[in-house]
Amino acid sequence: MKCLIVNKESAEKARKYLLRYGLLKKGYKVFSKESFIYFPISGISEEVKRLAQFGTIGDAKFEKIKTNKNYKEELEKIISSSESASKGYDLLGDIAIIDADPKTARKMAKLLLESNKNIKTVLRKASAVKGLYRKRSYAYVMGKRNYIAHYKENGAIFEFDVRKVFFSPRLSYERQRIASMVKNGENVMVMFAGVGPFAIEIAKKAPKSKVVAIELNKYGYKYMLKNIELNKVKNVIPILGDVKKMAIKYKNFADRIVMPLPKEAHHFLDSAYIVAKKKAIVHYYSFVDKEKEFEAEQMIKEFFEKYGAKVKIINKRVVRPYSAKEVEVVIDFSIAK
After folding, report:
1. Closest C-alpha to 133, from 195, 88, 67
2. DSSP state of 215
3. Are 197 and 220 in contact (CB under 8 A)?
4. CB distance 269 to 276 below 8 Å
5. Are 296 and 266 in contact (CB under 8 A)?
6. Cα-Cα-Cα-Cα dihedral of 193, 207, 189, 243, to 10°?
7. Where are the beta strands (DSSP E) in 23-102?
8. Which pLDDT score is estimated for 69?
9. Nearest residue to 53 via CA among 19, 9, 6
């Protein structure tokens, strides 16, 4: 390979010149021998002749520079070549969860395990979220065969079996946002509490609040108890039961109500009315057509008008895309009974 051979005193000046004019051949290691430095070079003969001002032009063998894979680009290539693969992946502790066909999933899993030493297990979504408990099936792809996640978020830690409960790391910002709004002394009800992320993060942020967390899934409730213990919170009251039945017991209890059940929350607005104090705040989540992002706003107002209550919209935002046609939104509103 053609090279420029210069003495060590001239090496820095020669290097800058080569870089400036694009004559340093990429992908090969510069090396020294005795009192000389050897630079691999490329370019047309007229350009190379100009280098004689620094030293001599010769031939030498150069070692190739080992380059790390650009894993992000590789992953994007795999995803773009598949009709089934969704962009990105969810990381629950050391478990990566991807959404792709089995063949593509294996390619993605190999790349993820190579590129991220913190990933130990790769699972594939094998069904949609379905059923009363909003669970989905997962297929093992590669790495350690494990389904128990140990996940950290916003200063809290959560343990759960991904096959038994619903949990989305994509609601991390929402949990942080609402927890930051809660004041000490508030009574908060978290409906459909799952393994406790909303309730526990609120309880940690506002330790003098009282947080009632209701969950129907016995596995979700079991892990909520575990997570309350892990996070050492004393102000969460976990309840295994149906929100509609429990609402009667907590009539006029809540200063704030969290309703993170986007497909079915509208069926529980009557329970929210029962639980709410005279001036309560509600955080209502819903899946909607992305062309009609906030059509739920009018539905909420009309619903509470039946009870003679006034609704004031405080905030509304798109939380995340859910499908090609749907997005998840949150509407924060107050009820004046």
Report:
1. 195
2. E
3. no
4. no
5. yes
6. 50
7. 31-33, 36-40, 56-59, 90-92, 95-98
8. 66
9. 6
Q: Edge-to-edge, what's the strand order for the sheet holding 90-92?
A: 90-92, 95-98, 121-125, 138-143
Question: Would you give per-residue pLDDT tens digits along the chain (337 residues)?
Answer: 899 999 999 999 999 999 988 899 988 999 999 999 999 998 777 778 889 899 999 999 999 887 666 777 888 888 887 776 677 789 999 999 999 999 999 999 999 998 889 999 999 999 988 888 888 999 999 999 999 999 999 999 999 999 999 999 999 999 999 999 999 999 999 999 999 999 999 999 999 999 999 999 999 999 999 999 999 999 999 999 999 999 999 999 999 999 999 999 999 999 999 999 999 999 999 999 888 877 889 999 999 999 999 999 999 999 988 887 899 999 999 999 8
Where are the strands (E) in the chain, listed by range? Answer: 2-7, 31-33, 36-40, 56-59, 90-92, 95-98, 121-125, 138-143, 148-153, 156-161, 187-190, 210-215, 236-240, 254-259, 276-289, 310-321, 326-336
Dmax of the chain from CA atoms? 93
Rounded Cα distance, 197 and 87, in Å: 25
Report d(CA 114, CA 137) in Å as an integer.
25
Distances from the Cα of 271 to the Cα of 74, 181, 214, 244, 253, angstroms: 49, 22, 12, 6, 12
- Name all contacts of 56-61 with Cβ < 8 Å and 24+ positions apart: 56/4, 56/5, 57/2, 57/3, 57/4, 57/5, 58/2, 58/3, 58/5, 59/1, 59/2, 59/3, 60/1, 60/3, 60/5, 61/1
DSSP string, 243-260: HHHHHHHTTT-EEEEEE-
C-beta separation of 315 from 284 below 8 A? no
Domains assigned to the chain: 2-59 (3.30.70.2580), 71-146 (3.30.300.110), 167-336 (3.40.50.150)
Cβ neighbours of 194 (radius 10 Å): 28
